[in-house]
Protein 1
Amino acid sequence: MTKVKTMKKRALALLILLATMTGCKAAPEIRDLSRQTETEDFMYNFKPCSPDLLTNGSSKIRSLYDDKSAEYHSLFVGQVLSRFGEPDYVTEDNENLFSKAVSAEDKDGNVIYLDVYYGPSGPAIGGDVGEKESRKAADALAEYIMAAAPKDFEYISVYEDFGVTVKMGVENGKPYYISDTPGDLF
């Protein structure tokens, strides 16, 4: 057993012990790392890369926070900024707000290129949807992003279809999303 797996098991055991001692149940998000299979143990090293490396084009592989309120869209942007720094581009078009190219390197040195972006359907990760490894890397990248503390920022954009201005950001770790949507629009 590797040293990392041993440390993960000890951390999980400590969390379970603390939860038991305080009368709390373990949070459902806490996975029993001692039961991981080879596939679940597959890890990637994520880092920003040149957008030129996304040569095969990119299609949406998965959404993030699609069943959450608009504040989560701001949280996503702050988390991406925290993990990878400034985007490759930022626009004032809310349906093409930003994009950041990210590489995902597996333990064997294979590299997959993904596109983290805020597009027409909100927060998403794109890549080669036809490749199983791209989909696995996108899922792992989504978890990596959503686990980050957000960086403070503010973007002002326009949702062109309706001429609605959106101010989104994170201030002192708290996300906000404000739009000037007229009450009779929807």
Protein 2
Amino acid sequence: METEVPSKLLTTLSHAADIVRGHDFIQVYSHYDADGVSAASIIAQTLLREGKEFRVTLFTTLNDFNMDIIRSTKTDCIIITDLGASYIEQLDAMKNDIVVLDHHTIIAEAKRICYANPHLYGIDGMTSGCGATMALLFAVTMNEKNWDLVQIAFAGIAGDRQHINGLSGLNVHLLEEGKKRGYIEEMPGSLIPSGHLKTQLFLTTDPYIRGISGNEEGVTKLLEDAGIDQSKTYMDLTDEEKRKLSSLIAIRLTQQGMLECSLNEIARTRYYLTGFKMDAEYLSSVLNSCGRSGLGGMGVSAGMGDAKAIEMGAKLMNESNHDVVMNMVDLDSKGLNQMAHLQWFDSSDSGFTGMLCGISMQCIGDPDKPTIGMNRSKEPVNISSRGMWVQLDKGIDLAAAMREACASVGGEGGGHRIAAGGSVPGEMVDEFLKNLDAILERQLSSSK
């Protein structure tokens, strides 16, 4: 492992392992999305194999309120995964033994606690190592026998979309080791969703196909135009049927304004998990649905391989996918609200803010402007932002922009250059949007 992972990171992980070995009970905190649940599952399985007692708590975000929960933790040892980068100084001030395995933008370096983040070692945590990646590296540092958990890590990698433009950095190391050990198999990608075509075309939001997604008549017509029987699955298709259906889907996506680079992202390489007997993206969706439905414990159990939890999570996923696609149809009919340098929508009635934000950005939004989604159903207002690589090339940095814009109205924000989140007081939403628009304008101007 020494030749693929930076030696300084190995040293940090070894220190983290030593810390954990010295305690009988560990409190684990993680994010509630696919990457966070994957990371928590890896840590939970690792601790279980080490004979440790533990408890897992999932947060929708790490803010001052949840930081107070961490401060009140009575246990002597804490592991935080897929969270923590924005609160390193506060965590440093605590007396507990703390291990942070995060991949978000660096705000401060740790002085006391054990902090592992790809950015600290010259590796981009947005593309080349997610929370589950860091959790897996910690797990195999604890014990080489934990390499089977690389399958769960790939659910996290898929959840954070770090495979979209091809794997890089630490994730390449995980792929090589996973393939060598027989846990991961690469599969060619396609614009056509896997599974029963009539069902999955109706449910698809990756991509969202206008007039097809969430539209039974549209799905029936598409399959008829392709000359494909309504009962077929993806695996039943001939090469000619795949070619024709892919072409019809590509035409529709191009007509609705999707960029060629986005089409290429959708037809990405897939990763089959031999132990789970499913695609990494499928497992990722199961874990994500559990976490976002408030059933994080079931998600962690599913990530640890519990068949019943996976079955229940898959049912949740299908229900969630139906809700998401119908909310996306509704959002598409309303359109996005346009400002000079951003576009935004309110998803207070749905609760799928982050997912709708990503789908909108890729499939229906102006590709030159970041997309902002907000859920005003609770206080503070939760906000998600998504960009595109073409925007980053022009100077957009959503991690910095969201952090500054949220702070300007008394909120908290941060994340990655291409995807960031935050929360702001409800009465300050309009001011936040105005400030964020000005910050994005400044970023674009300074890069020229």
